[in-house]
Amino acid sequence: MERKPNYRSTKLACYIGYVTQAIVINLAPLFFVIFSDKYGIDNASLGTLVLITFITQILTDITAVRLTSKISLRSCAIWAHILSASGLALLGILPNIIQNTFTALLIASIIYSVGGGLIEVVISPIVDAIPVEVTEGVGGAKAAAMSLLHSFYCWGQMTVVLVTTFILSFVGNDNWMYIPFLWALIPFFNTFAFIRAPFPHFISESERTPVKKIVTTRLFVICAILMICSGASELAVSQWASMLAEKGLGVDKVTGDLLGPCAFAFCMGIGRMIYGILGTKLPLAKSLLASSFLCVCGYLMITMFQNPVVALLGCSVCGLAVSLMWPGVLSLTSREFSHGGAVLFSLLAICGDIGCSVGPWLTGLVSTNIATESLSKLAPFSGLAHDQIALKSGLFAAGIFPIIMIAAVIAFMAVRKKKKAS
Predict the structure, then answer these.
(1) Are the CB atoms for 37 and 253 separated by under 8 Å?
(2) How far apart are alpha carbons 76 and 239 in whole angstroms?
(3) What span, in angstroms and rounded, lies between the C-alpha atoms of 194 and 191?
């Protein structure tokens, strides 16, 4: 009797892959205040840095639509980690070599963003293809497994915030460039894990649903909108939470990082772990609808209340609210297009990264452009400092994304119900 392969090492490598993704996305924003104070980079440029980072990931996702059908997912996963490690190392090297700091940061960001884009494309279909040991409710079990996988992104984000903040408090802001080298070790060593790990069977080219057939369906269009809103709702808060806490709410960096992005990541991780345990018992679409409503409440807490404690609590509420969004939409879509294969996940990653780029970019754009002389005159009457009004205005604008998501989930449920009836 043929022995079934043990996929524990594969799952572990995938989990660490999402920790790498968390490093790639969340490390640079922790240095935003340093980049602003030390190198004079304004909020709009920092927002542009995030935008270009995710545009790079989008282009990588688009390339991966064809790439994953030409070369193995194992090769893609290996190269993803090599590029992530290289880009993180260069983040600490290039600002000391290139005179224009923004250009130096941009080059490093592009390199590790290509790696991050590949991770996003290949890790989810690997886990989705691993057989689940259940007798019923396979769809729910797959959704639970996907949510558990994405919880490691949250634990990675939280670890990045805690460790980076802890090290900075000892070595000082002037020595920030040594920290990226530490984080580069994780993707470097995980490269070897993907070289050795067994891989599950994937849908062949002949079995795969054609891309044209997928993208022309109404359900996929709705799912694409859901992915865009998921990425935007999550990243608008997580990318700006550190600066919101420091400059917008007037607390020190250690406290700001702990109560801002760290609390956000913790609540997001808890939410994903809970769904990972209870996922087979909860209706996915209705859970997404509830998450979207909760996210709107979180955005209102951040932007509409003067009390810093309430605003920081709003970051945590947003973390819990967005926890199900990204993995939930992935599972919802893969359930509807069960023969989409890695190409389906590439298409969804493109949509998600569009949201991840637009959300933080819109926040930074509104935050910078709202900083006018008339706003400065308004500040004393509102009881808020100029920076507080600017950042809150930017995040208020980004609150449109969870509102759109509510409408999109309702539309998905209506179309799905009509499809079942016919």
Answers:
(1) no
(2) 27
(3) 5
- For the chain, give me the number of helices (H) and strands (E)? 18, 0
The token pair at 63 is 């390339």
Confidence class for position 295, pLDDT limits 50, 70, 90: very high
Q: Would you tell me how many other CB atoms lie within 10 Å of the CB of residue 212?
A: 7
**In this structure, are residues 388 and 312 in contact, taking their beta carbons and an 8 Å threshold?**
no
> Which of 109, 103, 111, 122 is closest to 64 using CA atoms?
122
* Cβ–Cβ < 8 Å for 107, 90: yes
CB 224 within 8 A of CB 332: no
The answer to whether 62 touches 345, Cβ cutoff 8 Å, is: no
Taking the C-alpha atoms of residue 342 and residue 337, their distance in angstroms, rounded to an integer, is 11
Q: What is the biggest distance separating any 2 CA atoms in the chain, rounded to whole angstroms?
A: 79
Residue 159 backbone phi and psi in degrees, to 5? -65, -40
In angstroms, the CA 20 to CA 65 distance is 21
> Tell me, what DSSP letter sits at residue 4?
P
What CA–CA distance (Å, rounded) separates 131 from 114?
A: 29
Please answer whether residues 394 and 367 qualify as being in contact, where contact means their C-beta atoms are separated by less than 8 angstroms.
yes
Cα angle at 157 between 407 and 71, to 5 degrees? 80
Buried b (16+ CB within 10 A) or exposed e, 174-207: eebeebbeebbebbbebbebbeebebeebbeeee
Going by the DSSP 8-state scheme, the letter that residue 28 receives in this structure is G
Give pTM, 2 decimals: 0.77
Look at the block and give the residue holding tokens 């070599």: 97
Q: What is the DSSP letter of 371?
A: -
Question: Predicted confidence band at 188 (pLDDT cuts at 50, 70, 90)?
Answer: very high
**CB contact at 8 A, 238 and 264:** yes
Name the token pair of 330: 């992935």
Contact 364, 394 (CB under 8 A): yes
The arithmetic mean of pLDDT across residues 399-409, rounded, is: 95
